[in-house]
Design goal:
Number of strands: 17
Radius of gyration: 24 Å
Shape: globular
Distance between the termini: 37 Å
Order of helices and strands: HHEEHEEHEEEEEEHEEEHEEEE
Structural class: alpha+beta
Strand content: 25-35%
Helix content: 10-25%
Number of helices: 6
Length: 330
């Protein structure tokens, strides 16, 4: 049998005629090889923030991302690409006269573009540092406005996430406001499956739907409830969904269903939004100045401070390099 295989291989390599082939002609294989050789490649670095993982691209000499949303979807595929929850691009600022150091854009794993990403911005800051940027802080231009990450001596990164948006129509959320500042705080709402929730709506530059439960494991059917709320008509731009359990006055646990990405191990903007929602709903008090509320995500803890002096949220946590490489764009 081995001899027959060798003969077959010889026939493939040196046919006497096209008609004698029992396998596809070599032109098909050569064409495929030519296409692969002609494929575009791109250098990348893979980072994760508590398991929320991103592909980082150095586009600082460009004004637009070097990948399309469709290419980003393929690159995020965990079987046929690099794998990731999204692709983040380090771009030059949109205006040479601005006071921004750099600009950040993101394509989610489904090709949609969010305004910002809390875990992504920490990975982004660490990426800039690893590229040789010496500054201890960066002023980053995002679709959600200016974001300022600070590199800490202990290796963590603290990010000034800005002020939360509380007015329901600005989140945007169409549920009738039921609290001061036109906000939505634990408002009764029925999802498309008929399940009743008490919903709080907060924006951190991107929309969040926060639901407090007694037990994350028994009160939530995550694969069903997450997507039902993500695409609920009450949130016309769709929404990130956080299910939250209060452990103590300084400790919260959460699971997140991210808009455009589904279940992820961490969400920085979500951790900020749910901390604000917990304080607004009277679940916990504000933390003392300079300290944070511990928020346990599936991938690990973040520390969030909603500072009373300036109304801004500050998030502290890691951004870690996993590996670097060159990807073939299929």
């Amino acid at each position: 049998m081995f001899r027959h295989l060798l003969l077959a291989a010889s026939a493939v390599l040196a046919p006497s005629s096209v008609q004698s082939w029992s396998f596809p002609p070599p032109s098909l294989s050569l064409g495929r090889s030519t296409r692969l050789m002609a494929s575009r490649t791109i250098d990348f670095a893979k980072y994760e923030g508590l398991g929320n993982d991103f592909i980082l691209i150095d586009d600082r000499s460009n004004s637009d991302p070097s990948l399309t949303p469709e290419e980003s979807v393929r690159l995020c595929d965990r079987n046929f690409g690099v794998g990731g929850d999204g692709v983040i691009f380090a771009l030059r600022p949109s205006s040479a006269d601005s006071d921004f150091d750099v600009r950040m854009r993101i394509y989610n794993s489904d090709g949609s573009e969010p305004e910002m990403c809390g875990n992504g911005i920490r990975c982004y800051a660490q990426f800039l540092k690893d590229l040789g940027e010496e500054a201890g802080t960066f002023r980053v231009e995002t679709l959600a406005g200016p974001i300022v990450p600070v590199m800490n001596d202990d290796g963590t990164i603290t990010v000034d996430m800005g002020e939360p948006v509380l007015a329901g129509p600005d989140v945007p959320c169409s549920i009738a406001p039921n609290a001061d500042l036109e906000s939505v705080v634990e408002a009764p709402h029925s999802d498309r499956n008929g399940k009743e929730w008490k919903i709080s709506a907060v924006s951190m530059g991107n929309p969040h739907c926060i639901v407090f439960v007694d037990d994350l494991e028994t009160d939530v059917d995550f694969p069903v409830d997450g997507p039902a709320l993500e695409s609920d008509p009450a949130f016309p731009a769709k929404v990130n969904v956080e299910f939250v359990q209060v452990v103590s006055e300084t400790h919260l646990r959460m699971k997140v269903w991210e808009r455009g990405a589904g279940p992820t191990l961490a969400c920085g903007t979500g951790a900020c939004a749910l901390t604000v929602a917990a304080i607004r709903a009277g679940k916990i008090p504000r933390s003392a100045p300079g300290t944070g509320i511990r928020v346990d995500l599936p991938g690990g803890p973040l520390f969030i401070e909603w500072r009373e002096s300036n109304n801004k949220c500050y998030m502290s946590g890691p951004g870690t390099l996993s590996f670097k490489g060159t990807a073939v764009l299929k």
